[in-house]
Amino acid sequence: MIPLGILAAAGGAVAAAGSYDLLATEILTSGQSSITFASLGDYAADYQHLQIRMTSRDTKSDTSANFLLRINGVTTSSYAHHRLYANGGDPLSSYASTSTSAIIAGVTASANAPSNEFGTTVIDVLDFASTSKTTTTRSLSGVLAGNTYVVLGSGLYNSTDAVASVTILGEHSNSFVTGSRFSLYGIRKAA
């Protein structure tokens, strides 16, 4: 990971509330089953929300696949999620699940997609430092890989613990491939 928060702040200018600062980026140089952004409490003083922007592809034998998000390393049935998605010309569909071991956070291109095609996703982790409400996420994801998917989703981590880490992983132990990129942004608090 390349920590960039210090570089962003080094210019001396005070950033406006709601502005986005790049905090870290990981670009895979080999396959990896999960990516974790840790020590997120270090950002609590300056940032209200976190955002993950990613372009990814995984090893599943399909054109596309879901991927998961876990908070604070918790693997128990502490999550819920729902998705609204469109697949090419098919009608709009929805899906929801409660008491799951992770949030289905989006969709990625997979091994059978056209060569060098990646999916894109933006995930917001809202009020990540709060200890008075449960953690919610929202995501927008898309992939053009044989089947064209656009997915709008939200998730719940049913705990009032502050978010200390976020892990992104393949749904069926799939690995993300070389060239997948994961960037963490902070959204600044009001002064």
Reconstruct the topology from this structure.
Elements: E1 2-3, H1 5-9, E2 20-27, E3 34-37, E4 47-56, E5 64-71, E6 79-87, E7 93-100, E8 103-109, E9 119-126, E10 135-145, E11 147-157, E12 166-170, E13 181-188
Descriptors for this entry?
single chain, 191 residues, mainly beta, Jelly Rolls, nine-stranded antiparallel β-sheet, four-stranded antiparallel β-sheet, 13 strands, globular, disordered N terminus
CATH architecture: Sandwich
What's the helix-strand series?
Answer: EHEEEEEEEEEEEE
Main sheet, how many strands, which sense, barrel? Answer: 9 strands, antiparallel
Give the low-confidence spans: 1-12
Short description:
This protein is mostly beta strands and 191 residues long. The chain has one helix at residues 5-9, and strands spanning 2-3, 20-27, 34-37, 47-56, 64-71, 79-87, 93-100, 103-109, 119-126, 135-145, 147-157, 166-170, 181-188. It has one domain (2-7, 22-188): Jelly Rolls (Sandwich), CATH 2.60.120.
